[in-house]
Every structure is written in structure tokens, then in C-alpha cells.
């Protein structure tokens, strides 16, 4: 046990850039502020490493909170090679891409009144139910374009949807040829719409077909890195994908609001992932505990500023 | 705004039963102790209601923590009609059913050393890697029994596994004809094994086929109730299943360690679910914040004691 | 790194006692359920050790939540030698001892309406403002009994109040000659009342005078143990009190809802306390993360059951 | 219930200033990112209001984490009129002012080894024990300067210490004539040193004397505002100080890592404070949940940038 660098007191300068602030947090180096600064260092190294396959995990209701454009911009900039998302984020991405909007609301309200006014609540975000009518029409039309005798991987279904949209995460991924995986797609409005379609039409989507392409990518990767926003299925699906290869992730950053002592994977430290071989013994890895609506924009702004220098 | 009953100070009697303690918490009525007591009242009403379809959601690493038998005992007792689980819990259930064990460990340890000794860590639980060799053999043998030209729903794949085991959650569910849904099964060691099998054999598992039976059950249900341990895919997959019906859940209890202000569904209050119509306007619903390794056993012990009276 | 005992799956028996349940949690041994079981083992050893001075730290709004009687009953049973509390808990203890009540309320309500109806809210507990009128009268009368030229330690002020009450924590402590320390007493309604009294009368209370008796007790203690409910001033004031002696605490249990990664002492692990020498190198120590309105009653019920056997 | 503005997707621009980022968060408006943006709006209004007495509450181990200079710079800039702190933050402030340093460490380490090497740990910050020898010498020398027959308010004791230092929070406060209150000063190394001094010397510090000046300031204040970092004694001591006046706080921002459902004041929402009259019915108030080592620098950088425009 040895002391590292001295803690430098954070100095605020009016007008300082986000990265200047993160550099200050780096010199202070403590708690989650320090962890966020280490995350920026790791994410910068990961993005600058041309031989690293870059994974991005997207869990938590991030798109309704306005965090979706950060993801699509990272795709456009070439900073995401493989995206794994919850179905809910993709549902809300489609809704926004179709021109429907989420709205500022309040968490202190009557949910019964909201029900009567046909407004759905996501903490302090409101989403009028109309959006799901537009959404239903889009999905039903899209599914009708599928070949009824073919079996699709989930990723291909999502790619079809993305090609029919002109903005947002799915659209940008489709435009850039970036695969989007969503193993729990059935657990979302997309899943309910597929069920609805299957009442009259025919659709065949395989639960495991995506894994071949994903694991091939993992086997081919010289190195792999991951930025996981939230935990859930995306975090584990990404981390486990390297388990079958001789390697693990070399770079790993997680932004999560959960906590480790409850035992769940969403809050588990990335050190734990070392014991499984999901990340390498020497992996540069850090977990930042906090709300990703704060930590994600700060992290990305800091690292993009460094990349632009 | 009116004051309810006075807060009664909790009285501890040496030797008191778990339900006696929960009754004391009910009279105190505050914070998560009060919420846990309300959860017991709701869960009791749900279990006593013969016309309610009883869902159980299982997320978080509950089986490695010794919470699996509570689930299988609830199935045996007829208290679960439909189980929705993460893939990880089913993986660890199979591991235990095959005679492998999880072990008391520590969260303060070197994960690199653990890696060298081939021990996987889940917070303070250790799982020697050997277990996965036994697991692999079992799954590969099981998959070989599938009809290579048939397409299976995920639930049927899990049912097959359950029928080949003699204890645990999957086995008990199979013995009792209780469906087990796991929409994100690809996100688990079961998923990786299916991929492995598909490298040489043929397996076809549909991502959406389960939804027909599930939604049929929802349409037929006079009333529905849910006990959700953790959030994740199981919580939402259960709650969304009633969205397509004219009804919502009448009883809803969630035990979670997450928090609402981060916006994610795992920590969202059940009130929020009211705005969506996932639960009815009049639903009896409560969220208990805390570690389910404490709240689940206390809740179930209290309610089973009441049912036995 | 070695595996410990196998994780035993928790078995629920209807009618089981609280300690039977905790023994089950002990055999499972994981996450906070396991920590709670270890806390019971440590607290039992501490209570059974005749040569240990037993500290109890009381933070968080525990009395309004009905947890006060657990504390006064522990005092009556001889299980607390030194109590350190926040001022708020003592304020609410006095309010209840004076016959005023806290009431079941709701956290989802209009605080402006509550304000109009003169009801104060503590999460989901309501306290009508009337209580503070009764409280004010009691405190002002009590302070008038003080010798205006004497300087009192805070503990003696509290002892005076306790002697004028016939139930509750302060009363029971006074009856049993147990010192109650409250270093931040100014930060409470008691403090505001003292200020009010000093507008016309004279009162002299020393901020440090209590420390002599406390540290003398620490120097004399062969061993020391602590059960800290919450963190805050009580946790640190207790732990630091052994810093001046050659020893540290031998037994230490903390029940807290905070978390370590934020750096604050309230959520800090007790391991951290080992580096400071607040607890001994070999101390039996555990932190249980969760709401003390659940963990405290379960812990105390289990240990009292063992003591009664 | 009505929908507010649409959620705007956050756009990151490399090199953007901290306030530009916070403005983006304001347009997204969701979860704690949205709360942080609202906090910036409220804090800006508070700092720009010349008739508002500006309180600052400092809890949590902020100085060891490098957050102390933000506080002293706010004092220098005239943005703090009254500071309320925990004793620990002042202890660490003195240590840094005396030239001793805190160091980058790790939370994954052997606390027993640290003990052997005489290094104290605060989560992932290390503080060699030497610092306390320097600290002891300084405090003992300082106390010897006190008039042994006078009775001091705690604030005056702290002011004396501040005048003997040339940098840091206490020094800057003393230089600017800003009162520093620390009602729980006994609960800190300063308290232990006072006890040590009283073993041979004489010192008389009153627990309540500060309240007169504080409440006079509250009665004179046309309006009052507060930025509370963490909860603990500082939050409540500040909020309760307006209870005796006909007014409450008009502006209130809290940055906390605690949570409301546990009932403790540290995690309580500021809405709850409305029911008590601690803040006014119309008060602009917001709680940002998260680690203050992230939220405090972002908040202050954003608001100072606005003030500089």
C-alpha cells in the first residue's frame, strides 16, 4: 500500500471547458469524480486504439431523457462498432425518429390523472399515448415487408427498421452498417407489436441467430473495449460475448446508478468481471456510480474534446 | 391530506415469528419497513384470490444467493402460475440442480487471484469454474434431444431442461406444468451454449413464440397479480403483458434495490406503471426498496405463516 | 482465496421465528442477507461479553418510524451502556413521551397543503404541528429548573429531560443511569428551544464537557462494542472516542442506507475504520446496507431470541 | 397534469464549456441531469439576488476529495454569507492549510496493512497519520491563546483557528469575516483535541452561543438561500434556523447521494421541507441525487460562467 499523487483541490474557472473540468477531477482523483476522470482516460485510449472493437451498451431509459443523440453521434463519428440496447431505448428512439416527442413532466403527480389524459410517465418525462399509435403503424408496415418464409436474426429486424427511418440511433446505425443487438427485444413495445403482427401475419425471428455474427466479431477482434451505460441485458450480453474467446475486454467503462452489494450484475464492479475472464487481468476498467444523464454527457464531451485536439 | 393511524412503536418479543414481526412493522407503518408490511398484505390477498393469475418475476443474482428454493417452493405450493426469469438465475438453478455448488466468498479479494484459481465471483459468492463444465455437458446433451427441424419457443426449451432435472426452479416448474419465460435467454450461459451447439448442430428457437401463450393467459385472466424480485427484463415483460388486454394488474409488489430518480424501469415506482395502464387505477401496489436477500424471505415467511393459519 | 461453506438455499417454514430465518440467511451467506446474519452473530457475541462496554448510535429518523421502543427496551435489558443520538431522535422521543403521536401518512402528497394544515412530513410519516407546542412548553419548563450559574454538559441537560418523562428513550436511560450523548444537540428542536430560552433566561451548556466522562469510560473499557443505526454524528462520535485510547472497538455492526463510494462516513465500510484504528485489526465487524426499519427489528429480534434460549 | 416543453436530445460539441453542457441538460430536462440544470438556474438566481443571505452547508468528506477550494473560492467571491460545516471537513481543511496532503489511494486494499503503515483511509483517499501530529500541535498552540476564563461560541473558536492559517476554508472565511458554524464540532478531531487540551488547560465553549448571531441574521434577512452539499448536521442546522422567523428559505439546492425512502433528513427531498415551513411555499428548490464530487464542480462552474457573462 502506497500513497499515490497528492489530491489537488479542484479549481473552477468560469468558462472552462468540460474537459478542463474533468482534468481537474482527475487531479483530485477521489470518489466518483475521480472515477469519472479515470473513465475519460480509459475511454480516450479505447477510442484512439485502431485495433479495438468498440462496444456500446445502452440500458436505462436514456432516449426519453435526451441521451439518444449522444449515441447516434458516436456512431456517426465511428466510435461504436457494435451496439447492444434494451428494447425500450429502441422503442423510444423509433418514436422520436417518427417525429413524436417526449415532454418535460414531473415525478410528483397523479398517475391516475395521467392515465385519464393518456399520458405515460417515465419518472419526470411524459409521453402522450398517441406516440404509440404512430409507432404501431410504422412497425406493422415494416413487418409486412419481411419475407414471411425467412427466419431473421433480431439484429436484421432492427436493421430493417433503421433503414426505414432517417434519424436517431437505429437509422444512424443502419446508415453506417453498425449492428444493433437487442437480445430481449420481446421485452418491449417492439415485441408486443411483433406478437400483434403474428396474430394475422407470419414472422419468424430467431433468439440466437445474432450470436454467430457477434461471436465471430469477438473472435476476430485483436482487442475489445466497452462503454456500458447502465447494466441490464446489454452489459452482460456484451461482457459474456468475449467469454468464448481466449481474450477478454481490454478497456471497460460502466456508468451505473446501481450498487454492488446487492449482488446483481447491473451494479457489479468491473473487477468482479475480471474473475470470470470477461475482462482481462490487465484491463483498464472503471465503474462510475451515478446518474448517466450526468455522467454520460460529461464523459463524452471530455473525450471528444481530447480527440479534437 | 389527513393523518392515518398513529405510528405504533415496534415491540420485539424474543421468539416472535416472522409474521408477528411484520405485523409490528405494519403498525409502525413507516419507510421501507412499512412498505414491506403493506407488501405482505397485498401478497396475501393475491395468493388468497382464486381468480388471480399469479406472476413471479426473478431478476438479480438470486439463486447464487440461496433464494432459489423460495421460488421453487412457491411453485410447489401453487403460488406461482407464470414465472419470468433472467437467464442467469436459470443458469445457476441448473448448476445447483446438477449438484454443483456456490460457496461463501468475499467481496474484498483479488479478482486476478480468483481468475488464476478458476473461481468466478458474484459479489461475495464464489463459483468454481468446474460447474460450467458440468453445465455445458448437460446443455449440449439436452439440445441434442431437440427435433432439429422444429422451431421452439424459449419456454419450451426451458421446459425440456426442467424435465431433465429433479430439483430446483426449472425442475419444479416442469413437474407442475408452470411455464417459465426468459425472453433474454440469449443473454446467459444458456445462450452461449445454444450458440456453441449451433456451430455443429441445428437449433431453432423463436424470440416471440412464447408471447402467444403468455398473452392468451393474460386475456383469459379475470385478475392478475405479480411479485417482482428485482427489475430488469422480468419486471417489464410481466407488466407489459397486460398492456394488450383491457385490464391491468390488480396486485403488484416489487422488491428492488434500485431507485426511481435514475429513470430506469428497475427502480421505477409501481405508481408510474399506473399511468401506462400496466396496473389498474385501483391496483394494490407497493415497492419495497432494499436487498431482496432480506425482503424476499421476510415477505414470504410472513405470508406463508398467514396462509397456514 | 478459498471457497468457504456451500451456499445453502434458504428454506421458509410457516411460523418460523425471526431467528430461525436469520439462521437460514446465515447458511445462504450472501449479499446483505448474509451480512445481516453475520451482524446477528457479532451482536450476540457483543451482548454476551460481560467485559464489553456497549455503545449504541442512533441516527436517521428512527423514532418517528416506530423504532424508538427497540432502543428503550435494549436499555432496560441492560444491552446499552452508552447511547449517542441525533437531536432529532431525542426530540421525537420527547414528543411521544409527552403523549403526542406521529401518524401514518404518505410521501406522495402536496407539501403545500400539509403546510396549510400544519402537518409536518417525515417521508411517509405525518406529525401535526401541535406536538411542538406541547414540546416547547415541556422544554421551557425544564430549562427553568436549571441552575442559571452552572455550566452543564449536554448529557446532563438530556438527563434532566429524561428524569421529567416516564417513558421513551430519554426516560429509560435516566431511570437506568445510562448516559445519552448528543454532540449536535444545537442542530435540533431542542437546540432551538435552548436558544429561545436564552433570549430571556440564562443557560450555559458546554460543547465538550461530555467528552471527559465518555473518554474515561473508553479508557476503562476492557473491550468495546458498537451497534450503529445509521451514520451521521453518532457513528463517528462513538468510533472516534476510542481513538485516544490504546484500543479500538472489538465488535462493530452498522446498519446503514448510505453507500461507500460517495466517500462520506455514513456509508463508509467498517473496514475503513480499521485503517484509522477506530476498530481493532481483529475486530468482528460488518456493515448491513439497507433500511434500518427492516434490518434493526430483524437483528434485535434474532439476537434477543438467542439470548433467551 | 400537462406536458411541458419537449425533451431536446443532448448535443455534445467538442470544447463546449461546462455551462453549455448544463444548458443542454436543461433542454433535455430529465432525471438528475435535468435536476442539476434546474439547480444551476436556482443557484444563479440566488447568487444574483442582492437581498438574499446565502448559506452553504458542507457535509460528506469533501475536503479530502479536493472540493474544499470550491468552497473557499465561493467565499472569496462573496457568494457565501454563512457557512455551516461538519467538523471533519474543517479538520481536513486545517490539515491541508498546514501543508499536509491527502493522497490518491484505493478502496480495494488491506486496511490492516494501511494501519501498519499508519495511513488512514477515506474511501479511495489516503491520509498519512503524520498529518495529525502537525494538526495536534497547531490546535494545542491555538487553544493556548484562548482566554481561559472566557466562554466562546464554537464559531469564534473556529474563527481563531482561521486567523492563524493563510489558506483554505477557515482562513478565507476569517479573512472575509464570514461566520463558520459547526454545531457538532465535538464530533471531530478538533473535538478530541479540545478534550486533550482540557486535560491540563481550561477551555470553555458553549454549545448554543452561536445560535444568537445566526438567528439574528435569519431575522434580518429579507430572503435566504441555501446550497447544501450532502445532508447531515449542516443541512438541518441551516434549514431549521429559519423556522423561528416568519419566513423560510426562498432558494434551496441540495446535492446528496442519499435517498428519500429511508426517511433520514440527509436524503429527504426539499419538498418535505416545505411542509415544515423550512422553505417557503413558493421556494425554488431542487435536490440533485448523485456524488457531489461530480455535481458540485459542474454546478459551480456553470453558474460562475453565467455570472461572468
Structural overview:
The structure is a homotetramer of 309-residue chains. The first copy, chain A, is α/β, with parallel strands linked by helices. Chain A has a domain of 210 residues: Deoxyhypusine synthase (Deoxyhypusine Synthase), CATH 3.40.910. Helices cover 47% and strands 17% of the residues of chain A. Chain A contains 13 helices and eleven strands. In chain A, strands 7-2-1-9-10-11 form a six-stranded parallel β-sheet, sandwiched between helices. In chain A, strands 3-5-4 form a three-stranded antiparallel β-sheet. In chain A, helix 2 packs across helix 13 and helix 7 packs across helix 8. Chain A is globular. The model of chain A has no long low-confidence stretch (mean pLDDT 97). Chains in contact: A-B, A-C, A-D, B-C, B-D, C-D. The interface between A and B is large, with 74 and 74 residues.
Name the features.
homotetramer, 309 residues, alpha/beta, Deoxyhypusine Synthase, three-stranded antiparallel beta sheet, 11 strands, globular
The gist of it:
Four copies of one chain form a homotetramer. With 309 residues, the first copy, chain A, is α/β, with parallel strands linked by helices. Helix content of chain A is 47%, strand content 17%.
